[in-house]
UniProtKB/TrEMBL annotation:
<feature type="domain" description="Gene product 88">
    <location>
        <begin position="1"/>
        <end position="235"/>
    </location>
</feature>
<dbReference type="InterPro" id="IPR020290">
    <property type="entry name" value="Gp88"/>
</dbReference>
<dbReference type="Pfam" id="PF17338">
    <property type="entry name" value="GP88"/>
</dbReference>
<protein>
    <recommendedName>
        <fullName>Gene product 88 domain-containing protein</fullName>
    </recommendedName>
</protein>
């Protein structure tokens, strides 16, 4: 049994020399939607989910993500942690091979470019893996923060090499505010129709906020200088809340 990583151009830690493709797969995905791995999906995210649209467009991609989920749901916490840990070991080996060839390779890994935490035990398994891989910087966005359905945040607390972002939109803003009171260490990734709407919705709330520069077309998805997320660095480092725009303006 094994899990498959994804080579997401937006987050890769090593682009190709021509700046068009990802040379290292440094993200992991599961199928999106309430019927799969996203118990906290809102109406807004169901409507605009870019990852779900990619699943519908590429049959092979959906098969990979569905296979990942099928492998995990059959296991307990320890079994899931073993599979996830093996995947991160493979990621580290890819980084080491690239470093041996002279490349500069930050060990950044995005949990869930697609999908979410689907159970408490699965979140605990990821916490075990993050804790055991202190040389890797992880980041994740999640909608699994409402105790009425699933709140995984206690499992992810006190992990210094993990940045946790609540995926927030107008549909779950109240639940997100309550979650932040319980867990002030989390950040927000807020989705609005426009950046101006996002600023208005969050006006008066504490914290520093940044409009996503790739989403606002201020930096490219990927280039020879690096992928958008690694070049920007806000989300991997967890240094502030981020606003995303459906309209990209």
């Amino acid at each position: 049994m094994s899990l498959k990583r994804s080579a997401d151009r937006k987050v890769t830690n090593l682009p190709s020399p021509n700046g068009k493709t990802a040379k290292i797969a440094n993200s992991f995905g599961l199928p999106a939607g309430r019927g799969y791995s996203c118990p906290g999906a809102t109406e807004t995210c169901q409507r605009v989910c870019y990852a779900g649209k990619l699943e519908n467009l590429y049959k092979g991609l959906r098969e990979v993500l569905t296979a990942n989920l099928a492998e995990l749901v059959a296991l307990d916490r320890a079994g899931m942690a073993r599979l996830l840990g093996d995947m991160i070991a493979d990621f580290r080996a890819d980084c080491e091979r690239a470093e041996a060839r002279g490349a500069r390779v930050p060990r950044d890994f995005r949990i869930h470019w697609d999908g979410d935490f689907f159970s408490w035990e699965y979140a605990q398994a990821w916490a075990d893996v993050v804790r055991d891989n202190a040389d890797v910087r992880f980041w994740v966005y999640t909608r699994s923060f409402d105790p009425r359905s699933l709140d995984v945040l206690p499992a992810l607390a006190d992990l210094t090499n993990l940045s946790v972002y609540l995926s927030v939109d107008p549909d779950n803003l109240e639940a997100a505010a309550a979650a932040r009171k319980r867990h002030p260490w989390v950040r927000w990734a807020y989705l609005a129709e426009t950046f101006a709407d996002g600023r208005a919705d969050l006006d008066g709330l504490p914290g520093k906020r940044y409009p996503c520069p790739e989403n606002g077309r201020r930096i490219p998805l990927i280039s020879a200088k690096g992928s958008a997320c690694i070049r920007c660095g806000i989300c991997p480092s967890g240094r502030g809340d981020v606003v995303f725009s459906v309209a990209k303006r």
